[in-house]
Amino acid sequence: MSNHAKKALTAAQEGIWYAQALDPESPAQNMADYLDIAGTLQLALLEKAFGQALAEAELLRVRFGQSGDGPWQVVDLPLDYRLPVIDLRQEPEPVAAAEAWMRAEAARPADLEDGPVFTLAALLVGEDRTVVYLAAHHIALDGIGYSVWLNRVAEIYTALEDGEDCPFTPFATLDEIVADDESYRGSEQFAQDRAYWAEQMGDAPEAVTLASRTAFASRHSHRRTAVVSAEVAQSLRQVARASGVALPALLIGAAGLYVHRMAQVQEVVLGLTVTARKGSRVRGSLASMAQALPLRLPIAPGMSVRDLARGASARSRGVLQHQRYRYEHLHRDLKLARTGGRMFGPVINFLPDDRTMPRFGRCETTARTYLANGAVDDLTILVYERDAGLRVDFLANPALYTEEDNAAHQTRFLHLLAALARLEPDSSIAQLGLATLVEHDRILVEWNDTSRDVPLATLPELVEAQVARTPDATAVVFGDIRLTYAELNARANRLARLLVTRGVGPEGRVAVLMDRSVDLVVALLAVVKAGAAYVPIDPGHPVDRIAFVVADARPALVVTAGGVAPVLPV
Questions:
Q1: CA distance 204 to 316
Q2: CA distances (Å), 388 to each of 228, 352, 355, 475, in order?
Q3: Same structural domain, 164 and 215
Q4: pLDDT (tens digit, 9 = 90+) per residue, 31-88?
Q5: pTM
Q6: I need a labelling partner for 351 at 20 to 30 A (CA). Which of 23, 451, 462, 540 fits?
Q7: Cis (ω within 30 of 0) for the bond into 248?
Q8: Within a 10 A sphere around the Cβ of 350, how many other Cβ atoms?
């Protein structure tokens, strides 16, 4: 039985709790990754390091429940942690077996009522190679806390391997985290934040998705990783500096421009992921605080790159200044029901260099692989800032986007960044296109390839050939009247011979003044068979217009029908 009192959930935890309660079998709130470690990892020391780090982190020893007053949490899990060790070295493909085990584990929903809210395991895949798996539910940790705790485990292990004691350094307790959240909700800052968001979002446009339908957050996501070269990244940084902003602001502007072009909207509302720790007394501790908040970004076609970047920078500062106000509170404040209750579509999230690996003593961490990043509502762009280049991942809700859709969006966005890197701050954003070279070629060449090989023959020759092939096939239909190819050809030949006897021949012109009918087709074909050019005249035109055409063309003859002959100028 726990010696700790039950505590209310923080505002951030409440949102996650109810999301999980709506779909208890969903693993969408799981975060999971693994470290590939080369060298002799001492498992006894690793277990001891995990045990100490667990003792320092109360939030990883909580379990959750619900009563008439709502959900609660309590520190109630034992400290005697035993590290699961899975030996896969005898498997035909040890690494593949390890990945299969970890993916299955990451897809398993956490048991919030009985705990634990985390999973740790060491998987042996070689004599000097160990895979360390770590997963945690988002209700206990966000991405920041997740990385902080993992680094703490590595720090303790390294000290133990060196024969040193690592001083016990507890993170913020559950009491401190809940008290900090309650303090904020009763503060003047909370009231100011609420007023800011009411003003910002009161007249906001509907959320826009790049998908053709809507869906709930996915249990899994399509993920694609790409790297922006050091050359392009450096050019983007130069454009940002020349525009008077930091690189993230320029990239936010680029993301907004992409959605603006793809969705054909004048104002974009992106989701911007924030730490939500500004002003918190426990900002450096383990907790679940991070969230995505709406960022409104008006975009006009005549904007310069500088205008776009500075607009994104100013709007981002407002979001960051008021980042502690919860998305869930704002959702309730606005009484949202439109667009499935969402305030934004695609989300952009900036993360530190993904190549910074926790080091376990004398072992080397060669890779860190992400298996699950939490729920994805629509489309999420993850940007990892590196010393030189950038890594840009696209995570897509599979209920909205296929893997091909996700790949196409990522490719076009990277193409946009490369084009942006070549512009000056005063350049118009109208110069930026989204179509990649492949798409450009497909649109202008493949889809526009309407050329066809045609025989070197005149129209009369083609008609004669068709008569020989299918004489009884229907050639002309007008109302209830039908002519076969043989009938059409015979009539046209008779009229052509008459025209020739009247002096019509090559280089001559014959005006044809007739309403649409089978006879019109016969007349046009007959003129061509006689070797002349026809001058079509619409009987519905004013008499003065008809007179002008006849005088200007000076035809040798006019072919007409009795019903329209009176309109001829005399």
A1: 16
A2: 9, 13, 12, 69
A3: yes
A4: 999 999 999 999 999 999 999 999 999 999 999 999 988 999 999 887 788 999 999 9
A5: 0.75
A6: 23
A7: no
A8: 17
